[in-house]
Each structure stands twice: as structure tokens, then as C-alpha cells.
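Work Package 4 report. The design task specified in the project plan requires that, given a folded chain encoded as C-alpha cells, an amino acid be chosen for each position. We show below one input record used in the internal validation round.
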């Protein structure tokens, strides 16, 4: 019986304990969450931050770095966000318990407190219950360096690239250490190469080891990057100095000579001596006048009446009397100023204190400038080659109609314009730009070939051997075609868009570059030169064309139809002009005046090169293209002046070589 009662008692006590525990837990769950965050529930980041509260609240350069290191060592993903908030003054603390938070302003003076780790709301507060943490500039600089270091070693490649770009835009001396650590950990080869280059740029500026700076500077002797020159040039900045004795050799950048050096004027030099206390002040006319007015007494200045001060001689005499009485400072004469200046030495010294760094910088800049000069020559050559290929492409059709047939076709430019508009129309229906250009080339040839055939059949065939009437007739056709284009397409420029693979430029270095469109036009020019040479020299059409050109009657007696050959030849030249229009339209504005911009250069190319010779057309295009670019190099802001001088030169050239660079030989040369 006793055992049964004991068992019942134990069971009762156990049940009572469980009920009490359950009730306590339920009660705790029903209670509201306190705004205070117990230490036991804080994240590791929050715990570290609160442990260093006083140093964060009123941090200094000496105390902030250990706090930053401790925060980063937590490994919390929110650590970088906390440092950003600290740097940008977005941290606050609650006055009641010093809890550091970020805030979100609701309305008026009401704020929502946000957890620094999760960013979730943890309570409410009014303005008087919280206070902003405002780090000074030194602490913000430390935070910036720490953020760079953390982002440079981020697991995300895009973050590392963005961080490196940001660092390159605004480098600081304290970025050098984190950058070197990041280089050792970087796994991406391309990004690592960029890091190494930037590290050398920072080393030559900020490293404390002179030998390391010199080595970094010398490593850029073949680098033509603008950023290199932008950092090297300030390292040779100077300041103006003055001394009463000549400076010792090797202690100055250069000696300044008054009168022969525009950087230092006579007045500025003398003012430096006055500021040093080595010379009396040079009294200006305004100061003298003011002194005379100040010391007027009884209608006189000294012994001279005011009414007598109308001349400079009288004013000088009155001022001299004031000087004798000690009422005004003495004014040194021009001769005295000159003599004083002769006794002083004016010179410039480098701001960079290390002679080794200065010498390395000068040698590296000299090497770079030499390479830049040669690169500019190469770039000018490529520009000339590009322009020559454009002129050749525009003139190659004219080389047939004018050079071979002898027909002065003033509407040749309008065939170029028609080809460009053909490309534009095709792009309205074919949105794939690569395909549209591939379709536009044969379409432009077909359109302008037919237009050329029609023009030859209707007009040109009736005007052979009548050059003046041909010129006037084709000029009229040119005006009519321009007006027709305006009526159809309007006066606004139309876009002929190039494919994506032609965007950008072929960049060799920071000096030499050429757009891919120009490269494509050069390739197209070479292709058409080869095709035209093959057509005229290796095909039956070419043989018959040359036969009709040299002796139409003899060709006719051999069974060749001169009318048919003339028609096909004129159509071929016009068709090539249409293809040239597609190529030119890729970089020029497609308007009704497009062809007029190239007709003069086309005729000059054919005439200068040698009429009737496609090799001459090539030589003429090269001569005109290089000549124009060479003239533009002397005055790059005035292209019109360059074209004017080029035309004058060509007129003079034709006076001495009227048959062109490559003149025809034999019977055709006398026609």
C-alpha cells in the first residue's frame, strides 16, 4: 500500500513540473519582443561592433584600424556593408543602450531602426532617441582602403573587376598594400595582369623604396598608355625659386633668364625679391597718386601747388619731397630694379625629392615620346591609306567611264548616292545588318548598272567625242537625280547601319587605331582593283573594251559591236560606283548631296593618276589621300583649308605632268 501511494506521489509531482514548465514557456511566448537586443541573441558582427562602440562613435586614425580589422575578421557577409555605412555616415546609435543600427526615416522625426547584420527592422525611435555617427576624413580614408581590400579579394569576379576599375580612377597611397595582397590571390589571368600594371603605376608614385620606384618607372619605357604619361608628367612638376647666389649644379631643373623666358615676367620676378625682403617695393602709379592725395595740405603737396600737378614731372617731384620727409616709401628707379634683378638667380626645382626618380622619369618619358612620335607617323600613314582607299573606291568606276571611255560624267557622284540609298532601302526590310549589307552590294550594283545603261543609251551615245555637251548634259542629270532623291527620301540624313562586327576600331596602342569600317573599305578597294584589272586584262569584255577605246573602226571591222561595248562599259563603271556608295554610306551621312562630296576628288584621282590606267587611278588615290592627311596634320581643325591647298598643289602638279603619274604609252597616249 505504501509503495502504491509513493508511486502516485511521484507521478503527481512529475506532472506538476511539466505543466509549470509549459505554462512558463507559453507566458514567455505571449510577451512582446523588447526593443533591446540581449547579448546572447546578437550576431557575431553586432557583438564585435558593440564591443568597440566608443571607438566607432568617436574614432580616430589611430584607433579605427584595429576596429576595422576586427570587423573584417568576423567573416560576416554583412561586414562590408557595415563598413560602407560607416564610411558614408549612415550609422546611428540608440542613446538608451548604445545599440549601433542603421535607420530608415518614416515621417517627420520618426525612424525605423534596422539591424546592421540582417537589415531587418528591430524597433522604432524618434530623432531625440538616436544619434548619427560621423567619422572624420582620416577614418573614412581607412574605411575606403579596407573596402578596396575586401572587394579585391571577393569571390565574385565582377566585384573584383569593378573594384579595380574604381581604384584605378582614384588611387591612393594606402591602396598599394591591399592591391599587392590581391595580386597574390588572383586566379583570373586577365584581371591579374591589370592588377600588376596598376600596382606598378602606384609603386612609381607612392612606394617608399626609391629602387622600387625607379624599377617601376623604367618598366613603362615602352608603354604608350595615356594613364602612364598622366602619372609620369606630374612627377616632373617644378616650383619657382629665387636666391641671391647661383644654385649648385644638380639642385635645379632649369635656370630662368628674364627677358628670354616667358614663364617669368620682370614684375613677377621683382615681386619675389620684395617678398623676400631683398629689394624695396616698386611703387605703382596708383599708389603714388593716392599718397599725393593723402598729403595735400593748404592746397599743396610739399612745396608744389595742386594746380601744378598736371604733368608727370611735377608729380614725380612732389612724390620725391614726400619721400625726403619720410611720408612715403622710396620708389626704386628702373635702372635700380634692373640691377637688383641681375644680382638674383631665378630657377625651378623638382617637387620630387629623389634625383634617381627624376632621372628615371625623364629617361622613360623621353623613350615614350620617341615611340609616340613614330606611332603618330604610323597612325597618319594609316589615315592616309584609309582616305586613299575611299577615294579609290569612289573613283574606280569613273576610271572606266572617263579614264577608258573618255566620257565626262558629272553624274558619277549621283550613282554613288543611289548605291547608298539602295542599301538604306534594303535595311528597311532586312533587319539583320550583316545580311542586309550582303544583299545591298549586288542590289546597288544592279540598280546603278541599269541606271548607267539607260543614261548611256538615252544621252551619252549621242554625245561621243563632244566633251562640252557631255559635261553639260550629265551635269543636268546630276541635278535631276539629286532633286529626285530629295523628293523620295527627303532632306534629312538617312542611316545606313553597319553590322556589329564592324563596330569599334582596330586598336594597336593608345595612339594607333583605325575603325573596322575603314579596314573593310580598304579590303573592298583591293578586291575591286583586282577584279577590275582582271576584267580589263584577262577577259574578252576587257579586250574588246580596250580595242574599242583605242580604235573603234578597227574593232568594228573585227566583228566587235562598239555600241554594245560602250553600253556595258558605262554600265560597269556606274555599277561599281553604286557599290562604292554602299561602302561610303556606312560611315558618311546618306543624303542627296552624298555624291557631290566625292565627285571632285574622283575626277582629281583619275586625272592625277593618269587617264585610262587603273594603276594610275590607284596611284592618284594614294597621292591625294596621303597629301590631304599630311596637310590636315598641320592644321587638323580646318579640313576645308587642307582640301583647298591640296587642289592648288594638284593644279601645279598637272602643269608639270599633264598626263598624270602613270601616263599611257603607245597609240592611245596620243588621243
Amino acid at each position: 500500500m505504501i509503495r502504491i501511494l509513493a508511486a502516485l506521489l511521484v507521478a503527481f509531482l512529475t506532472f506538476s513540473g511539466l505543466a509549470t514548465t509549459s505554462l512558463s514557456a507559453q507566458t514567455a511566448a505571449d510577451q512582446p519582443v523588447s526593443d533591446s537586443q540581449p547579448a546572447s541573441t546578437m550576431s557575431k558582427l553586432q557583438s564585435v561592433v558593440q564591443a568597440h562602440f566608443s571607438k566607432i562613435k568617436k574614432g580616430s586614425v589611430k584607433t579605427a584600424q584595429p576596429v576595422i580589422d576586427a570587423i573584417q575578421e568576423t567573416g560576416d557577409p554583412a561586414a562590408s556593408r557595415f563598413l560602407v555605412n560607416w564610411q558614408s555616415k549612415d550609422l546611428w546609435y540608440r542613446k538608451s543602450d548604445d545599440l549601433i543600427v542603421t535607420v530608415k526615416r518614416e515621417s517627420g522625426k520618426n525612424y525605423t531602426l534596422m539591424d546592421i547584420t540582417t537589415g531587418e527592422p528591430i524597433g522604432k525611435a524618434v530623432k531625440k532617441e538616436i544619434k548619427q555617427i560621423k567619422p572624420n576624413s582620416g577614418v573614412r580614408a581607412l574605411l575606403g582602403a579596407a573596402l578596396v581590400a575586401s572587394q579585391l579579394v571577393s569571390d565574385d569576379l565582377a566585384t573584383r573587376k569593378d573594384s579595380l576599375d574604381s581604384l584605378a580612377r582614384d588611387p591612393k597611397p594606402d591602396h598599394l598594400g591591399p592591391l599587392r595582397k590581391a595580386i597574390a590571390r588572383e586566379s583570373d589571368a586577365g584581371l591579374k595582369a591589370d592588377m600588376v600594371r596598376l600596382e606598378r603605376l602606384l609603386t612609381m608614385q607612392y612606394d617608399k623604396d626609391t629602387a622600387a620606384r625607379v624599377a617601376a618607372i623604367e618598366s613603362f619605357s615602352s608603354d604608350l598608355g595615356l594613364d602612364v604619361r598622366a602619372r609620369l608628367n606630374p612627377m616632373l612638376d617644378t616650383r619657382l625659386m629665387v636666391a641671391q647666389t647661383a644654385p649648385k649644379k644638380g639642385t635645379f631643373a632649369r635656370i630662368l633668364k628674364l627677358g628670354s623666358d616667358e614663364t617669368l615676367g620682370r614684375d613677377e620676378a621683382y615681386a619675389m625679391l620684395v617678398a623676400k625682403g631683398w629689394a624695396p617695393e616698386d611703387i605703382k602709379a596708383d599708389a603714388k597718386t593716392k599718397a599725393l592725395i593723402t598729403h595735400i595740405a593748404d592746397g599743396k603737396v610739399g612745396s608744389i601747388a595742386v594746380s601744378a600737378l598736371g604733368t608727370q614731372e611735377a608729380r614725380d617731384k612732389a612724390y620725391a619731397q614726400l619721400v625726403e620727409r619720410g611720408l612715403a616709401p622710396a620708389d626704386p628707379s628702373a635702372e635700380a630694379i634692373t640691377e637688383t634683378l641681375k644680382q638674383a638667380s631665378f630657377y625651378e626645382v623638382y617637387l620630387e625629392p629623389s634625383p634617381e626618380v627624376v632621372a628615371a622619369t625623364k629617361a622613360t618619358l623621353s623613350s615614350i615620346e620617341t615611340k609616340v612620335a613614330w606611332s603618330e607617323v604610323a597612325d597618319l600613314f594609316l589615315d592616309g591609306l584609309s582616305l586613299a582607299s575611299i577615294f579609290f573606291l569612289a573613283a574606280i568606276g569613273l576610271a572606266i567611264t572617263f579614264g577608258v571611255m573618255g566620257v565626262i560624267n558629272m553624274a558619277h557622284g549621283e550613282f554613288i548616292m543611289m548605291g547608298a540609298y539602295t542599301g538604306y532601302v534594303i535595311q528597311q526590310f532586312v533587319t539583320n545588318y550583316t545580311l542586309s549589307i550582303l544583299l545591298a552590294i549586288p542590289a546597288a550594283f544592279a540598280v546603278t548598272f541599269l541606271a548607267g545603261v539607260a543614261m548611256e543609251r538615252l544621252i551619252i551615245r549621242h554625245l561621243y567625242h563632244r566633251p562640252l555637251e557631255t559635261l553639260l548634259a550629265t551635269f543636268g542629270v546630276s541635278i535631276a537625280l539629286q532633286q529626285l532623291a530629295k523628293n523620295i527620301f527627303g532632306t534629312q540624313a538617312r542611316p545606313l547601319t553597319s553590322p556589329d562586327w564592324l563596330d569599334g576600331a582596330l586598336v594597336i596602342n593608345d595612339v594607333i587605331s583605325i575603325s573596322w569600317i575603314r579596314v573593310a573599305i580598304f579590303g573592298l578597294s583591293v578586291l575591286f582593283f583586282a577584279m577590275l584589272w582582271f576584267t580589263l586584262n584577262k577577259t574578252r569584255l576587257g579586250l574588246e573594251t580596250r580595242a574599242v577605246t583605242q580604235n573603234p573602226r578597227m574593232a568594228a571591222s573585227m566583228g566587235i559591236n562598239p555600241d554594245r561595248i560602250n553600253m556595258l562599259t558605262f554600265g560597269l563603271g556606274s555599277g561599281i560606283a553604286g557599290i562604292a556608295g554602299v561602302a561610303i554610306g556606312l560611315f558618311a551621312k546618306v543624303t542627296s548631296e552624298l555624291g557631290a562630296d566625292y565627285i571632285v576628288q574622283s575626277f582629281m584621282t583619275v586625272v592625277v593618276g593618269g587617264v585610262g590606267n587603273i594603276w594610275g587611278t590607284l596611284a592618284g588615290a594614294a597621292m591625294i589621300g596621303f597629301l590631304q592627311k599630311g596637310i590636315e596634320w598641320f592644321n587638323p581643325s580646318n579640313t576645308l583649308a587642307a582640301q583647298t591647298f591640296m587642289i592648288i598643289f594638284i593644279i601645279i602638279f598637272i602643269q608639270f605632268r599633264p598626263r598624270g603619274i602613270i601616263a599611257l604609252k603607245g597609240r592611245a597616249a596620243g588621243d
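The first helix runs from residue 2 to 30. Validation will be extended to a larger panel in the next phase.
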